[in-house]
Design goal:
2% strand, 55% helix, single chain, mainly alpha, two-stranded antiparallel sheet
Length: 164
């Protein structure tokens, strides 16, 4: 059962979106919420692929995530979304959105089958998306020019994890 829901209430589409995003990025719900971008990215998805297609994606995601929870794996997510000709391109663009803060256009093959909107062009979703991109946390770095590491930090050698 997705976090934040009770056994009697089904998850909202936004909760499913957050659970899907967590599964795709490897960051948990709290870390994604901490970026302040869940609403922005959810709205971006709806705007670019449309509410109907997003509903189909989120329905498939909810089913795959529930199956994977029961079986303690991620095979359903891979088969039903990541490897899917229908949803795979959207999932790839969502991963890029979370990590880089920019929307990258869906493939021509996807647009030929599912259509597209005028917003499906490469663009930075928001300045906050750049600053809060997951790429920085994954790399142990900070976004250049946006979140400096602190006064005097240049005087210290960079952190290098111990070698095994």
């Amino acid at each position: 059962m997705p976090n934040g829901t009770s056994p009697t209430s089904p998850p909202t589409p936004q909760q499913i979106f957050t659970d899907l995003s967590a599964a795709l990025t490897g960051f948990d719900r709290a870390e994604l919420a901490g970026t302040g971008l869940v609403d922005t990215y959810y709205d971006t998805l709806l705007r670019i692929i449309g509410e109907r297609e997003a509903g189909q994606l989120l329905r498939a995601a909810a089913e795959a995530l529930e199956t994977d929870r029961r079986h303690h794996g991620n095979e359903a997510l891979e088969a039903e979304l990541i490897d899917s000709p229908r949803f795979g391109p959207v999932v790839v663009s969502l991963i890029k959105l979370w990590y880089l803060g920019s929307w990258y256009p869906l493939s021509g093959r996807y647009r030929d089958v599912s259509g597209s909107t005028a917003d499906d062009v490469e663009h930075v979703v928001s300045a906050q998306g750049y600053r809060e991109g997951l790429v920085w946390a994954a790399a142990g770095a900070h976004p250049m020019g946006a979140k400096p590491p602190g006064f005097g930090s240049w005087a210290e050698p960079p952190y290098l994890p111990p070698t095994l």
